[in-house]
Amino acid sequence: MEIVVPEGSGAVGIYGFARPKPERADELERLLLSFVEPTRAEPGSMQYQVHRDVADPSTFVFYELWRSADDLRAHLARPELAHFQQHRMDYLREDLEIHWLTPLSVTL
């Protein structure tokens, strides 16, 4: 799956689910958490969160809020994110589930 950021102006939000292979869950958690601080420091990053689903702790949930689609595209082009995208199925039992959001209450 290629991640295609929708066109548009203004902020863009994203939430999604990562469902790891059981034997790779701890490794995926460490990897996802390693993205947090560098991503929060990127231009245009307004929020970047990684969670575990309470009802299904084997599922990771992520939430991102970006100033613009261009900022998100720049993030996804970073080498560590591009590498993860290319090798994500080494960790996942099914592909990422991604939902795009148009923020309505964001102050830029």
UniProtKB/TrEMBL annotation:
Q: Which protein is depicted?
A: Antibiotic biosynthesis monooxygenase
Checking PROSITE patterns in the record gives: ABM
Protein source organism? Streptosporangium minutum
Sorted alphabetically, the keyword list is: Monooxygenase, Oxidoreductase
What's an example of a GO molecular-function annotation for this chain? monooxygenase activity
Is Acetylation given among the entry's keywords?
no
* Domain ABM, chain residue ranges per copy: 12-100
Q: Which residues cross the membrane?
A: none
